[in-house]
Specification:
The chain is built from three helices and three strands. With 89 residues, it is of the alpha+beta class. It has one domain. A three-stranded antiparallel beta sheet has the order 1-2-3. Strand 1 and strand 2 form a beta hairpin. Helix 1 packs antiparallel against helix 2. The chain is flat. The chain starts with a helix and ends in a 14-residue tail after the last strand. It holds the Pfam family MmeI_N. InterPro entries: MmeI_N.
């Protein structure tokens, strides 16, 4: 089913109201991003994966990023998160 812009806007307003009190990344991040994908009728599992393990640049060990869509984008959110340049990854 194709969405029109008005449907997307209405869904976005509802989503913003549903998450305006969200404070716990561990509890709220995954459902939030699933709902973001749902705004556009996208199945997040069809293009990527949540909690992808990654090597940490400049540190030993492995970390996790919130969502990774190979060849498209990666997403990391959380308290204190900020945009990073390609060189910082």
């Amino acid at each position: 089913m194709a969405l029109n812009w008005r449907d997307i806007q209405d869904r976005a307003v509802t989503l913003s109201h549903n998450y305006k009190e969200a404070q716990d990344e561990d509890r709220d991040a995954k459902p939030f991003w699933k709902d973001i994908f749902a705004l556009y009728n996208i199945d997040p599992r069809a293009i990527g994966s949540f909690e992808e393990r990654v090597k940490m640049h400049g540190r030993a060990g492995v970390g996790k990023i919130d969502y990774f869509a190979p060849g498209r984008f990666l997403k990391e959110c959380g308290k204190g998160s900020r945009m990073k340049t390609k060189e910082q990854f």
